[in-house]
Amino acid sequence: MKTLKLTLLCFTLFAFTYADVSKTEKEALVALYNATNGDSWNNTWDIDQPITDWYGITLENDKVVAVNLSFNNLEGTIPEEIEGLQYLKVLNLSFNNIEGNLPEGLMTLSQLEELKLFSNHMGGQLPNSIGNLENLKSLELYNNHFIGAIPVAIGKLKNLEKLMLSSNELIGTLPITLTNLRQLKVLSLFDNKLFGSIPNKIGEMAQLEELILSNNSFYGDLPSGLARLDKLNTLLLTNNEFRGNFANVQNQLPNVTNFDIDQENTQGALATLDVEEDDN
Question: What would you measure as the largest C-alpha separation in the chain, in angstroms?
Answer without folding.
Answer: 94
